[in-house]
Amino acid sequence: MTTDPARPFGRVLTAMVTPFAEDGSIDLSGAQELAAHLVDRQAHDGLVVMGTTGESPTVSDGEQHAVLEAVVDAVGDRAVVIAGVGTNDTAHSIENAQAAARLGVDGLLVVTPYYNRPPQAGLLRHFTSVADATDLPVMLYDIPPRSIVPIEVETLVRLAEHPRIVAVKDAKGNLGDVAWTLARTDLAYYSGDDIMNLPLLAMGAVGVVSVVGHLVGPRLAELVAAVESGDLPRARAINESLLPVYKGVMGGGHGAIMIKAALRELTLPAGPMRPPLVDATPEQVAQLRLDLAAGGIAL
To answer: Which of the residues are catalytic?
Structure first.
């Protein structure tokens, strides 16, 4: 558990997959096993549960609560557990936040509402309403490739005035906006797009919320430490060693699909995808094996 206000959720977190049984039902014991593996074997400070990689759009509220409770029970005494509670409905997001708080999570991840494309005034109202609903710290999730609407710098500056909005998971890829937001607010930035880990850390991000962290948590911790110590040659070398891993998991398809394929190859809990997502093809798995091998991971 972290107590550093500049790094409210730690350094290395993974957006955890939701393990399913072969019949498509939730695998709660698998979720606990995977959570413990990530914390105890992969050097994680925390886990984001029920985010994009957790297939949250196809997991019912009741299932989400069961998974959150299981993960809190498994690792909540030694890692930060952040619940993905955002939807494109403010009232529903508030209900999710309050339910997660009752389950004992440490923080909330709130994504930009998707599909309905709210204006910036709507984003301000949405995020502050969810933050007002509990006493938990909030990490905003800025991901216009999925939400279409970015959180603009002026909106982030206003959101930073809220005492519980403390961090941003950035998957926007706009380094100029990141620079201005870091200059004008105290928000803690976390890289939410693995290929951008090094540049964001170099600009002042405090950590990562990763997909490849399922596989390379210790190396991501080394990357963060190298940047913080000012050893940029070491940071670049670590980043270059991770490029094939980034490509294998994120470059050739859907991150959740490919990371579940990798976990299945490693006999770790994962299970199938839920429709409309589909499992990786044999050809995709073969390429994944090559890419991960180039990154030092043997499947």
So the answer is: 141, 169
